[in-house]
Specification:
single chain, 6 helices, nine-stranded antiparallel β-sheet, 28% helix, Pnp Oxidase, Chain A
């Protein structure tokens, strides 16, 4: 069955306005406000974000990951260092994030440099994960070809026995990254496609705010 004519797909974006006054001067404060409102709206996976990375030759790839914390230092997530994204971040430590909350007609774009978290930070988060997730980290050669589903299930059984009754340590090939932004853009959908866009760009130790045309 062929899909419907996508050119007819449209809806009106109705939401709160985003003014310079409501945006304030701190992008992290505004992001925290928007994230809390997304959580209160019961948006599914409100902390989900599209992470875009690039290889040294400029090949870009994107995937959904989960934001685990944020502060004025940046946005934190965790992954397998030997996965495609992990390798790209090691070779080209720049990335972009996109948060999208359709329930609120909002999105946030973030661009910046990426640094690895200290081992103790990765250890602390790893130890907080459910046991099944910690076991999964040991058995999955992320982004690599595997023969079949049963391969993972067999490895899970074997690894579960190995760590039975003992603490599951963090694998050395898994840990956290922090994206340190130089740009954060907030988009609020408005009627007639006259959306509000407020961008913050880092200038040394301060943020410069500007309004962009929709």
């Amino acid at each position: 069955m062929e899909p419907k004519d996508l050119s007819t797909f449209r809806r009106e974006y109705r939401g709160n306005e985003l003014t310079e006054e409501t945006a304030g001067n701190d992008p992290f404060s505004l992001f925290g406000q928007w994230l809390n409102e997304a959580i209160r709206s019961e948006a599914p996976d409100a902390n989900a974000m599209s992470l875009s990375t690039a290889s040294p030759d400029g090949t870009v790839s994107s995937r959904m990951v989960l934001l685990k914390s944020f502060s004025e230092e940046g946005f934190t997530f965790f992954t397998h260092y030997h996965s495609r994204k992990g390798k790209q971040l090691s070779a080209n430590p720049r990335a972009a994030l996109l948060f999208y909350w359709p329930e609120l007609n909002r999105q946030v774009r973030v661009e910046g440099a990426v640094v690895r978290l200290p081992d103790e930070d990765s250890d602390r988060y790893f130890d907080s994960r459910p046991r099944e997730s910690r076991l999964g980290t040991w058995i999955s050669p992320q982004s690599q070809v595997i023969p079949h589903r049963e391969y993972l299930e067999q490895k899970l059984t074997e690894t579960g026995r190995k760590f039975s009754g003992s603490r599951i340590p963090r694998p050395p090939y898994w840990g956290g990254f922090r994206l340190v932004p130089w740009m954060v853009e907030f988009w609020q959908g408005r009627e007639g496609r006259l959306h509000d866009r407020i961008v913050f760009k880092r200038s040394r130790r301060t943020w410069q705010r500007a309004r962009l045309a929709p």
